[in-house]
Design a protein that fits this description.
It contains 7 helices and 9 strands; from the N terminus they run H-H-E-E-H-E-H-E-E-H-E-H-E-H-E-E. By secondary structure, the chain is of the alpha/beta class.
Amino acid sequence: MSNASYRIRLAGAKLPEPVKAPAKRAWRAWGGLAARAYGRYYYTNAAHTWKNTTWLGVPIWKNPKDLWVYQEILWELKPDLIIETGTNLGGSALFFASMLDLVAADAGGRVMTVDITAHKELPEHPRIEYLHGSSIAPEIVTRFADAAAQASCVLVVLDSDHHYDHVVAELRALHDFVTVGSYLIVEDTNINGHPVNPFFGPGPWEAVDTFLAEQPGFVPDRSREKYMHTFNPRGFLQRTS
């Protein structure tokens, strides 16, 4: 930093707060716009960014900043059971299992993950159980219910079909499995213009609106968006009652 720049900053710091306040508001507003622009740029360059991300060599189509938040949540909760919809190539299930190895090595935590597509060569891990079918099919929901009944802390992650009707159906079918204090995480609430993929149509964001109107015992934990770049804005739903 040059001497002139340092002197300007020093003089600005000595200004009274009523003078500095408008400049701070403008700076924060600009920062918010910059974060949204970066989020759109990152998302639309998927082949070089989130679709080019792996965990232990397995593709994992998530925002690395969200993965960091996941590990913080898993450390805090140490869940007995993680229910995931949308296995895809198995990277996120392997990530969750790996985190459970680290944060709850002596506990019986496990991951149940379901996908309508039976992918081949999914990663193997003793904590992972793969299910094949629709996440809202009665037989799948029953499997989840049986497992949740034996767990003291349950985390649910929704990352399958992102169209509104399906996400609402998932929320209604699976929210009861989430234990108080834990999370129901709705992935990809950023689509349909929030701020990416504006032509998708009603999806996870709109489904969250509907769900929160029906279930006041869940609230969006915006503190989980602290890195200012997430694929899940308003999607970290914590159960409070």
